[in-house]
Amino acid sequence: MRFLSVVDEGIGSQSDRSMRHTLAVSLVIVTLFSCQKPEALWPAAPVPFTAVHINDDFWAPKIEVNRTVSIPSAFKQCEINGRLDNFALAAGKTTGEHKGDYPFDDTDVHQVIEGASYALAVRYDRQLDAYLDSVITLIAAAQESDGYLYTCLSNKCKRLERWYGRGPTATSSARTVRITNPSLRRMRPSAMPCDSATCIRA
Question: Burial level of 73, CB count in 10 A (0-12/13-18/19+)?
Fold first, then answer.
C-alpha cells in the first residue's frame, strides 16, 4: 500500500498542482501587501472621538435628544428608584434602609455617568455638567477609607449582598476622567480597578 504524493499521475496530481498554484499566488499577494506601509492600505488616521462632530440630519438630532431627554431621564430613574440614595446612605449623609431589589443597582448610576460624559464631550451642557459633578461627589463620599465602593455591602444589605459591579465602576471612572470631568479624580484609585481592596472585601 502506498500513499498518493504530489508526483503521482492522474486526477490526484492535477488537484495537488492546482492547490500549490493557489498557495503560491496567495503567498505572493500576502507578501506584496505586507511590504506596504499601513497608511498605503488605509490612508485614514485614527483620531480621538472627542474630535469627531456629527452635524447631519439623521444622527445629530438623535444625539441631541440623548443629551436633553434620555440622560436626564436615566438620572431621574436613578433618583426615583433609590440608587442615588444608596450612595448617600453609604456616605453617611442619610439614614434608612438600602433600596432596590438587585445587588447591581450601583452599576446603573455608573453607566449613566459614562453616557453623560460622552454627551458632554460632544456638546458642553453646563447644567448636565453640574449635575454630573454632584453625583460624582456623592459617589466619592460613599467610598470607604481603603477605596472600597459597593453600596450594598457598605450599607450591610444582607438580602442582596454579593460581589458585583466592578466593571461599570472602572469604565465610567476611566471614561469620565479622560473625556471631560476631572472631578472624578476625587475618587480614591482603588475604586476604579478591581484590585485586592475591592475583590477581597467583596
Answer: exposed
* Global model pTM greater than 0.70: no
Over its C-alpha atoms, the chain yields an Rg (Å, rounded) of: 27
C-alpha count within 13 angstroms, C-beta hemisphere, residue 157: 24
The phi and psi torsions of 195 (rounded to 5 degrees) equal: -100, -165
> How far is it, in rounded angstroms, from Cα 24 to Cα 49?
41
The Cα 102–Cα 113 span in angstroms is 19
Cell numbers found for residue 187? 475618587
DSSP conformational letter for 67:
I
Q: Which three cell numbers stand for residue 91?
A: 456616605
pLDDT of 94-150, one tens digit each? Answer: 999 999 988 889 999 999 999 999 899 888 999 999 999 999 999 999 999 888 888
